[in-house]
Amino acid sequence: MSQPNPYILAADNPSALLTLLRANPAIASEQDDHGYSLLHAAASYGHIDLLRALVKEFGVDVNMLDEDSETCLFVTETVEVAKCLVEELGVDYHRTNDEGLTAQQTVESDGSFPEVALYLRSVTGDSCASMAPIQPADALNPAPPLPPNIQMNIGTMSEQEVTGEVDPEFKRRIDELAAREDFHSEATQNQLRALVMDAIRGADIETGDRDVRQRTE
């Protein structure tokens, strides 16, 4: 009889996996061809007891890396698991992956688990304003993360702070979008982004002329 797949057990049946590991402890530290480990699976699927057993009972390195140089903290989806890894099991939350990003930065840029991102930010003490804003968990259409090296500050400016002449038609269009009740909807945000990109490219707001190839609707 063939041995059950430990990664499937890690996702669906952690108790059965623990039984298998106690019969064959060598499996605990194994990794697949992509460096994915049982530790990563346990963290991703939220099995805290399995996480504890892998590290404390079977001696698996909590900082084991996958092929992207990411620990299991990078794939954590709940605050409870993140707390267990950071406060109990001692995962290195300062470690960066192959892209030079920490787990906090990776989770924030993904935007799928804002509570985890907020917890990791509190742990690292990083209150950097350039970080992408954390979307609420129930956001219907969360805005995509900003491109690298781009940050956006939302606020107001006095007339004295404005340098250069503002295109009145551009201002009218911005004001019109801002006044809409569905301003935060995906469709309106897409219109806002398109308008800003047109301005950056040097578009004539009134005529629609651009210094790049014009879009075809």
From TrEMBL:
Keywords: ANK repeat. ANK repeats lie at residues 34-67. It comes from Penicilliopsis zonata CBS 506.65. Pfam families: Ank_2 (PF12796). It comes from the Eukaryota. The keyword Transmembrane does not apply. The keyword Membrane does not apply. This is Uncharacterized protein.
